[in-house]
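Key idea: predict the complex, not the pieces.
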Amino acid sequence: MTQPILLRVSNFKAYVWDVDDINILRSHHHICGILTGTLPHLSSQNIFLGLPLQLMPEEAVLLVENGIAVLVDDPSAHHIPSQSALKLWKEARLNDIRQQIALTEEKGSIEASNPDRAMSESAKRKRKEREERRARAMANAAPGVPAEDNPSPHPTSENPSQAIIGEAPDSTIVMPSGSYTVNIPASSSKLEWYVPHSNASLTIAREAGIWLYPSTLQERARCGVFRDLWEKGYYMGGGIKFGGEYLVYPGDPLRYHSHFVASVIEAPDAALRPMEIVAHGRLGTGTKKAHLLCEWNDETRVVSYLSVEWAGFG
Amino acid sequence: MDDVLERPRPQPATPTLDPAEEESSGSEDGGLDWTKLPKVGAVRPVIPKRGEKDFEPAAGGGSGLQAHVLDRARAAMFDALKADRAISSKSASYGIWCPQISRVHVTVARGIHFSAMGHSAARPTSIDNGSTKLQKRLELLPEEALYLIERGALFCWKDIQTDLTGLDDIEGAPMSVQQAFAEIIGKEDLTLEKYQVFAYLRRLGYVVTRTDPPSPSYPVPPPRVGSAPLSFYQRLSSIFSLFTASVLRFLRGSNNWWRPLGISRWIHHDKSYGKVFKSLRVIPAGHSVAPHSSRATPVAPSSPYKIFYNMYKPSTNFRKTIPPQPDFQVVVVNARTAFVPSLYELTELFNVLPEIPPPLPRKRGAPSVVQSSPVAVASPVHTSTFKHIFSWLLPSSTPQPVTSQPRPHPFAALKAGKKNIVIAAVDSGNISFFRFSQGAFEEWPTL
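Result:
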């Protein structure tokens, strides 16, 4: 990786807002995070969630320490746009709206041209007809403008359903009256006044007051255990619902079950009550997982593991 | 149990609902199959199902099939994540985020969301001639605004001190969802954990409001009528219930008429099991006495166990200007920093909570009325007229031992408890809900 991934930090929480970054983190670095936002097209359920991806603090610490990512203070990265920047933004939006309206008028409906839909023969034919009609209308409307596609400056125009056509001839209309689509951008990266400033290391970020993790022995132990398991090639997820700190997966959690529930023990001489072992063993049997007791030695920075399973005699 | 039935569903459940699959969707370890997610732009969104997972990748980084399926799952997931927040201009709402007062001033309010969110507040507004005047306007709390932005229902500007003349309808700096997350969380006591709980419940259709009003103009439920004087009707019915209880006892024949004459009473002196057990209960029980503590204030002021949200079921008739008493109250804690609540913290929570009536048994099949009264067998005409009169005289809320109102099952009542608090523990995006309730064992002796 040449360019480090930007982790947007606000309120001491690290987020990833770029889908490509999420892909890199997941595919190359087996860091999953947890999706925490509402999926805009499926907004009434909690099973599948959308952007942003929230990282566990251990994940963020590991990424920064390994130089894969840097921390960005997100609230201060959003500057106040200048008047000229706002003017540009407004122009781009107006252009987009006009194109949409022109498109709607010609095609009847935007949804109909959704490229994701399975295309039957008749649909293909209809689409071809529509495109011909559009091309004709475009030629009529703007005889001076060549009919080639010119990319719009507006960030949302990459949606293929809003294919680019020539500008509407009547540029004196300030606010078009027809119905159009308003886009709320998810990521700020394409806004002109978004200038992220990276903090390359945890020390710098700590001095800047945007990131404090890990600051206690418990947090150091968590980071140490997380790193050790990660270096062994495992994927980790939150394990709070299984009575531990992490769920340890042999592969991507999208496709594979976890084998272990890991709980972090801060010191090798920390007391462990027999009831805990019983509870972990019982829970592990019920969830078909082995419980992993991970002892962190803060002096040698070494993790030792013990796994608990029901022996199953009798 | 009932919660499952009351979970909102955009469309009736499919008949092929597999109970095992349904169960697995409750556990976090079930496979999230993004490939079953409807494609962006599909006409009718459906709630997708979880899929199957493998035990582990084959040796050497997974077989070809495993790699293919994983790639497909990832691609589907990233496609879904790339979906635009696109709304029709006809249904878009607009607002201005004012960081100084931590509110979003709604300039255009459209859609059903505003029936359960937003409140009106009087703010000084400058009028054309330079003077200011208090004017009512619709405002959103930080969590409400962020939820609407995230959902793609609200386009938000940020209030900036820049001259906006010549920019027509632009009312500030346009905000992305990312900027909203960065700037709106952290204002007005809103933490990320609290926002995540709010959004989780809102997505399911619950109405969520703040328990402590963040400003005087924020509507709150009216104070509970705990020790308020009884209404005339209630007093009348309580007198009647005393009267009817004795009449009914007479009718049911539970009184043993020969009891005063029986000689065994004088010999054994009230030695029924119930009486003996009652006299054995010498240790006081119940929650009327606060737990003893050597410290003056056993609950630290920094305790995270404070009620934050009021919650209403989707079926509750909610009016945002006059909110009713909440169905649930929710405490949000950060699972990484908070401990399990102490007895003192729980006592403090329960002290402000209302008592809820015990759950009534659910009716199964045709309502069987006759079984409860043995008199009905002897003189059916007589009781039916009686029942008729009683049901007219007595409101259903008063305890009626014999009429058609079924008695609550003692175990169900013990399980439900008298007071309830929902605690949401959030561990970096992972929300777990717990219900703590104050039991009432002393009120339901089994003998």
